[in-house]
Every structure is written in structure tokens, then in C-alpha cells.
Amino acid sequence: MKIQPVKGTRDFYPPQMAVRNFIVDGWKASSIRNGFVEYDGPIFEHLQMYQVKSGDEIVEQLFNFTDRGGRHLAIRPEITPTLARMVNKQINALPRPIKWFSVPRLCRAERPQKGRLREFFQWNIDIIGVEDVLADAEVVYCSLDYLRSVGLTSGDVVAKISSRRLLAALLKNIGIAEDKLESLYPILDKKTRIPVEAFVEMLGKEIDSTDTVQTVLKLMDVHLVDEIPDIVKLNEEAKVSLDELIQVFAYLRTMGVEDWCRFDMSIVRGLAYYTGMVFEIHDKAGDLRAVCGGGRYDNLLSDFGGPKVTATGMGMGDAVLEILLREKGLLRDDSLDIQKLDYFVACLDADLLDKAVNITAQLREKGHASNFSYKTGALKKQMKVADSMNAAKCIILGAEFKDSKQLVVKDMQTGEQELLDAESLFKS
Ligand code: HAM
Q1: What residue owns the CA closest to ligand 1's atom 26?
Q2: What's the CATH number for 14-41+79-333?
Q3: Lowest CB count within 10 Å: 85, 264, 317, 403, which one?
């Protein structure tokens, strides 16, 4: 019986693992550069945790199961609820502000498509306990800081920024009831991904008046804050949230990434828990799904039984990012090291295998990444193996070195060989 991998999952052979490591190492370096510390949680949680506040879309995509004790569990589709649970548990002991990052493996039962898988990795950065929108701006900045560090420019990607608080105020102003908002957000979030007729039809199911549907449509197309009052009158709440958003852009200007950012009312986000600034980073050509998304979620900790503590953050998946980096020529498989050795010990004579194994063991003890050749014999073949393992140096053991205390060490880059005292090699 030939068993196939499950659709939407990936096998990470060493070359693919090198790509994943390149991405994850960059995420970690950016997190540390921006002052975040790492955390992680379990890969599965109580099913209920995702039913509380993530929204129907996530619930429909859950891989859930019942354990032998009858507990209803789910594999994590995101880590934000876990983060909220963990922070709540130690809320009085944790020094604030909390700036944490993680790179969890997540599973969502999605229909696999370009950039969307059923198992993926997602970089998360979150700032908890800072009310000022400076924290929102810092989350956007840190996401851009990573993308810039791997070679992308403001010509390649754009951070589209909006505010759920502003949107809620405007929608209420045009007569949409507060309790309708939560079911409306996932629909509005789909606007750029579905044909306009389908979008209008979905809106029509939630909103009775066709005039109101048309106003919502106009609102979703706004790219300049000044245009909003032409469509909807600003009430006090809308004014306050608009000022907040303008302040986010002011901070982003101070951080020097203004060119990468723009206001876009169609950014709503599918998840239910966002309460303030929301953003997504997209490829400028608009061919791909969002590279990342996030925003402020001030109620999630209290929704999970904790105190009212504000929070903001984002998640960036590896799948769309990898496609984008390849498209832009910023990720070439031949530029990534699958393996890197300090030494390869080539053994030309079967009698010397013991010596080769012993030398390798001593090198390893000293912390040098080293391999020996399992097969003794022809030098040319062994050099090929050393090359394929990306060895910096090769120790060549020929018959004449059986009782010698000296070793031939070849520099694989220059091709130069030197005779070195074995003891001196193991000292360093
Ligand atoms: P999200 O929008 O569901 O947000 O996911 C964020 C990113 O994860 C997406 O932009 C995409 O790059 C990636 N992603 C999501 N689903 C998939 C998938 N099926 N396959 C591949 N990549 C995917 C969240 O998850 C929030 N918890 C982010 C957050 C953190 N908000 C605040 N803090």
C-alpha cells in the first residue's frame, strides 16, 4: 500500500528545511532586534477556546477531535488565544509591557490553494499592556523591518492599514445595529477576494436596505481619510478613532516607514476579536493573499476571564512569503546551505578507518562540525562527498599517515594543502 501525504501538508526534505530555516531565522532575528522575547504553547487546546472569540471562519477550519477522556480538543489554527490564556494565567507576575514572539506550527482545514495550506508556520509578534497606538505602529514597523531585511522594498509590498473601531462607528452611523457587526466583518474582509456581485449578495443577506449596502460599498473603496465625511457623517466616536489612526501613521512616519504604508478602508480582518487598528501587508501587484495580518484586540484577555488588558499583534505565514520572495528573486535554493561542515575526514585506506573515526570524534569533541567517510578509497570520490557536505576543510588520510602524528589538511575553497600536527588541530 502506497500512502500519500495528506493534501495541504508539506514534507520538509533537507533543501525545503533550509528554506524554512532561512525564513524562521530571519523572523527570529527581527523579533529580537525589535525587543521581543520568545514563547510557545501546546499544539492542541480545548476546542472551546477557539469558539469563544476567533469567529466562525476559524471554527469552520478547525481540526478537532475527542480524546479518550471525552474532552473536545482542537489543533491550534492560530496562537493568539493561547497567548491570551497564558498571559492571563500569570498576569500579576509578568512585567509589562509584554512583547512576545513565537513561530508556531498551525493547522487549518482550508481548501489548499496558492499560499494557503492546511499546515503552515506563522510568525507572531504581540505587545500586551500598551494602550497607546504607538504599540500598533511598532507591530507594523517590526513586520516591515523583517520584510526589508530580506530585501523587499516599498515597491514590492504595501502595509494597508485601517481601524475596526472607526469602521464600527461608521457602520453604526449608517444604521447597522451593533449586534450585526460581528457577522458583517468576515463578509467585508472578503471584499477583495470575491467578485463584486457575490460580495453585494452576501451583504444583502445581512443588511436590509439596498441604499445602506451601496454606502458600505463606497466606504470599502476609500483610500484617503478625507473622503470619509463625503460618504458618512463623522460622529464623536468616529472622530476619536480617526484621530487614533492618524496618530498611527504619524508614528510610522517617525519610524521611517511611511512610504510602505497606506490607509485602506477595505482592510477589516476576518477574525472576530479585533477592536482597533487593523492591517495587512500585501504584494503591491495584488496577485497574492496577504503576507501577514494583525491588529489591536483589547477585549480578548478579558473575554478569556482575565482582567481588561490591551493587546496588539500580527501573524505572518511562511507560505505566501516564500512565493513572494521567490518571485522577487530573493530566495534562491542554490544560495542556501543545506549542510555546513568544518571538517570532512577522507580515508583512502581501509586500515585507516579507525583513525578517521577517532580524528572525527576528537574534532566533534572540540565543537567542530565534522563527518568521516564511511567508504574508504578513491580520493576524487571522497572530495566530491566533502564538497556535497559543504566542508570548509578536508583531512586526507592516506596509507603513509598510518603511524604519523601529522595530517594533511586541505582548504576546500583555495585547494591549498598543508601538513599539520594532529595535536594542534585538536587543541583549537
Ligand atoms: P490570520 O489573518 O488568520 O491572523 O493569519 C495571518 C497570516 O497567516 C496570513 O496573512 C497568512 O500569511 C498566514 N495564514 C493564515 N492561514 C493560512 C493558511 N491556511 N496557509 C498558509 N498561511 C496562512 C491570525 O492568525 C492572527 N492570530 C494574527 C494575530 C496575532 N493577530 C494578533 N496577533
Answers
A1: 315
A2: 3.30.930.10
A3: 403
Domain boundary assignment for the chain: 14-41+79-333, 339-427
Residue to mutate, 120, 192, 323, ligand 1, most ligand atoms under 8 Å from C-beta:
120
Determine the distance from the C-alpha atom of residue 106 to the mean position of all C-alpha atoms in its chain, rounded to a whole number: 11
What's the pLDDT at 1?
Answer: 86
- Name the residue with cell 587543541: 427
- At 55 the pLDDT is 72
Residue 360, classified by CB atoms within 10 Å of its CB into exposed (0-12), middle (13-18) or buried (19+), is buried
Q: Treating both helix axes as pointing N-terminal to C-terminal, what angle do 164-173 and 178-189 enclose, rounded to 10 degrees?
A: 120
Question: CA nearest 124: which of 63, 164, 77, 169?
Answer: 77
390 Cβ contact list (under 8 Å, min separation 6): 337, 338, 339, 340, 341
pLDDT at 395: 96
| Nearest atom (ligand 1) to Cα of 270 | 2
Plot region of 233 (φ>0 → left; ψ -120 to 50 → alpha; else → beta):
beta
Residue 298 identity (one-letter amino acid): D
* Rounded Cα–Cα distance for residues 369 and 313 (Å): 38
**DSSP letter at 15?**
H
Closest-CA residue, ligand 1 atom 15, reads 317
- Give the span between the Cα atoms of 296 and 314, in whole angstroms: 9
Low-confidence ranges of the chain (pLDDT < 70): 428
Residue 428 is predicted with a pLDDT of 64
Calculate how far, in angstroms, residue 193's C-alpha sits from the geometric centre of ligand 1. Answer: 16
Comparing CA positions, the residue from 331, 347, 354, 335 lying closest to residue 385 is: 347
Question: Residue 159: phi, psi to the nearest 5?
Answer: -90, 110
Does 14-41+79-333 match 339-427 in CATH topology? Answer: no
* Prediction pTM value: 0.94
* Domain 339-427, second-level architecture: 3-Layer(aba) Sandwich (3.40)
Q: What is the pLDDT of residue 270?
A: 85
Among 122, 157, 161, CA closest to 140: 161
Cβ 331 under 6 angstroms from ligand 1: no
